[in-house]
Every structure is written in C-alpha cells, then in structure tokens.
Recover the amino acids of this structure.
C-alpha cells in the first residue's frame, strides 16, 4: 500500500472513537492487525498532542504522516491496513444549539466516559434487564402507593448512570425547548404558573394522562434526537441512556389491584423511567405535537391550554362553558391520536360556582390552597409550638422540621397572604438539639 493510503486508514481508525492517546493507539493497532505496539502508542500521543480535538480526516492523515511513530513503523516495511474503519458521518444540520455529535465516540467524550462504559450504560440491546445479579442492574426499584389508588414504580438510576443522564440533560436536552404550554420539568416555569394561567375563569377542565412516562415509545425519542441533527447510532445511544426495561423481579413485586398485563407490557418494553433526570425533559419533547394540537384546538373554542407533566388543563369564559361537551371528546381524540391515554375517572369539569383546583392549587380567585389543608397545617404547627414537635410527627417523617418548613414554603408561594400566621407559628417551635 502507498504511504498516504496507510496514513489515511489510520486516520479513519483514530477518528472512530474517544479522542484519548491510549484509545487511539488501541484502534491504530487494530487497524494494522498487530498487537499493542510502542510505536502505535507513540502515534496516539503525538496525534492527540498535535490536534487537541478530532479534525477532518485529511487533517488527521497529515498529522499521522508527520509523526515520528508512523515514520518508524513505515521504515520497518510491509505496513498495510488490515481493518478499515468507515469515515465519521458529517453532523446533520440542526435547528437547535446542541453540541455536534457525529459518532458514539463523540457522545462518550461529551459525557466524559470511556466508550466501553458508555455502551454498558446505554445498554442498547436491553441486556441489563436480564442481569443474573441485581447488583449489576443500572436502577433501583421501588413501588409507591398513590393516594388515588394503584401504585407507581420509581426506577432510580444508580450513581454512574445518573451522572451520565444529568450530563445529557444539561448538555443536550437543555438546548431543545419544549412547547410553551408545558410547565412541568421546565426551568423558569412551575406548577404555580400552570395554575395561575387558569384563575378567575368561568370553567376549568382537567384531564389526566394514564401511564405518562411509560407510554413514551423509544422510537419517538430517537426521532427527537434525529431532529436535533444526530445520526442513527448517536440517537440510539442517547435513547438507550434515557430508557430502560424493567426486570422481572421488579415486575413480580407489583402491588395487587393493578392491570398486571398492561403494566407488564409497558414496563417490559423500553420506556422512560420515573426517577431518571432526563425523563421529564424527554416526556415534554415527546408531547410537543400533543401540546401544539391541543393549544390550537383550545384556541378554536376560545379557551386556554397548559400542561403540567400528565395533567392537562383547559379554561375559558361562558362561551367555552357552553361548548365544553363538544370540546372534551375532541381533546380526548387528539390525546389518543398522539399515542397517549386518558384516565377518564380523573376528568374534572369545574365551574366557577364550585372549587376549581389544579395540581393542588385552588384557582377560583387568584391562586390559593384548600381551606381544610390550611387549617390542618396550622393546627399541627400550633400543637408543635405548644407541646413540642415529637408527638405531632404521626407519619414518622425522618426530617419533620424540613417537612413542615416545606409545607409552609409551598403555601407562601401559592398564597403569600395566607402564610404569615403559619410562618409565625413555625418560628415558635422549639426543636430538640
């Protein structure tokens, strides 16, 4: 082979992975069909030193041809490429300001992981769900009973995967904006803003999505990453990092009273785990078309629409109130067409003459908290101040002080004028040292 052809083949190998001297040297030796060699290590060191970041193939070819390690190997004679690597694909154009990721090696570099560990964490082929030992799994599993009945499965990623997911969230997903109607899991938006949008309305309607995170198909997530300009391999790796298949032992622990067949169908396939840092942002992006269509449908009826996670809210004046029976079936049809399902038993139509409540916030006249909830919280605080907090912690909160402070802070956000007395009583409590 010609000298330049060998240098070009080595350049393609160097570019096909993590840009680190040891990793580059290993790929160079593999391309030449030889064992680990001091001169391929020399090329790797010189190459990474000469080019701080991967460049175009012709730039890497020139750098290799100039390196001392390559010149020594060439003089030894009979040098040829045994394993050819494919050229790295050019990054696709993207409408978002996301980092360019042409290869899985670029993903590993972005997430500061060895490529072998990235592939293990991404688990593209779903092998982790069949791990023989739970200690090898990437998640911890816990079923939590819901007040409304049934249970939700918390799938909490272990530290290594959580760290990688957090980097995907901060470095990729943070640059892809959700629809303006989405208020959950969005920086600068909150449940209070979601509720405040629907204050002082003649009618407020609420729909609830069933199995929200579990219903987001991985194909939809791969489409999101493809829209961001990423290749099929990069999209599959990012999707693998953000999704999981629930192992059998966690499914076997499912509480009674649930649709076991449907839950096993959803959790046995790849889905967004409730507990991963990336799930909220990806669920919002997966709902972009749903949010857009429902925003347009609500506008046609003179109504306003927002969504907080799986809670859909619509509100309007008397004209919308008269059309509500025509509107709701159309909204439900849109939800079904977009691949989600409605929990019809949680559907609420609330007129101004009744308490209008969204996500625990009363919205009849400004935002407020239920009177019963305020009275119960004040009674607990008064008892704590007068008789000590130990006897009042009937639900055995591990940090009762933080629990009460959090509840008072919530009231202060929703209805500041109603939190003054609560704050005063909280300050009077004498906590044990």
């Amino acid at each position: 082979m010609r000298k330049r052809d060998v240098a070009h083949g080595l350049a393609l190998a160097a570019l096909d992975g993590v840009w680190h001297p040891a990793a580059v040297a290993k790929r160079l030796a593999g391309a030449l069909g030889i064992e680990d060699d001091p001169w391929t290590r020399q090329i790797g060191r010189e190459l990474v030193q000469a080019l701080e970041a991967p460049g175009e193939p012709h730039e890497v070819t020139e750098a290799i041809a100039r390196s001392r390690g390559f010149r020594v190997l060439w003089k030894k004679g009979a040098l040829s490429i045994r394993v050819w690597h494919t050229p790295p694909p050019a990054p696709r154009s993207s409408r978002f300001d996301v980092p360019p990721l042409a290869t899985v090696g670029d993903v590993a570099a972005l997430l500061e992981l060895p490529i072998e560990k990235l592939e293990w964490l991404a688990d593209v082929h779903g092998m982790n769900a069949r791990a023989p030992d739970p200690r090898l799994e990437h998640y911890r599993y816990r079923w939590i009973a819901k007040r409304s009945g049934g249970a939700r499965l918390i799938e909490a990623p272990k530290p290594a995967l959580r760290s990688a997911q957090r980097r995907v969230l901060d470095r990729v997903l943070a640059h892809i904006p959700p629809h303006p109607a989405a208020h959950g899991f969005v920086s600068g938006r909150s449940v209070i803003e979601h509720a405040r949008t629907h204050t002082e309305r003649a009618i407020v309607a609420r729909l609830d999505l069933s199995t929200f995170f579990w219903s987001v198909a991985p194909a939809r997530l791969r489409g999101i990453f493809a829209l961001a300009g990423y290749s099929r391999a990069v999209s599959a790796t990012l999707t693998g990092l953000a999704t999981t298949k629930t192992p059998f032992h966690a499914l076997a622990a499912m509480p009674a009273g649930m649709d076991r067949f449907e839950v096993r169908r959803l959790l046995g396939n790849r889905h967004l785990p409730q507990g991963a840092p990336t799930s909220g942002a990806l669920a919002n992006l997966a709902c972009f078309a749903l949010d857009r269509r429902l925003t347009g449908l609500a506008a046609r009826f003179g109504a306003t629409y927002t969504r907080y996670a799986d809670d859909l809210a619509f509100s309007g004046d008397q004209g919308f109130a008269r059309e509500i029976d025509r509107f709701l079936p159309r909204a439900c049809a849109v939800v079904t067409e977009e691949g989600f399902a409605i929990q019809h038993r949680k559907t609420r139509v609330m007129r101004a003459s009744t308490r209008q409540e969204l996500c625990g916030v009363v919205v009849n006249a400004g935002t407020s908290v239920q009177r019963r909830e305020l009275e119960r919280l004040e009674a607990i605080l008064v008892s704590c101040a007068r008789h000590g907090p130990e006897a009042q912690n009937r639900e055995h909160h591990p940090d009762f002080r933080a629990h009460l402070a959090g509840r008072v802070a919530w009231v202060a956000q929703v209805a500041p004028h109603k939190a003054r007395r609560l704050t005063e009583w909280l300050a009077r409590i004498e906590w044990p040292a």
Observations:
- Residues 318-337 form the longest helix (20 residues).
- DSSP finds 19 helices and nine strands in the chain.
- The first strand starts at residue 139 and ends at 145.
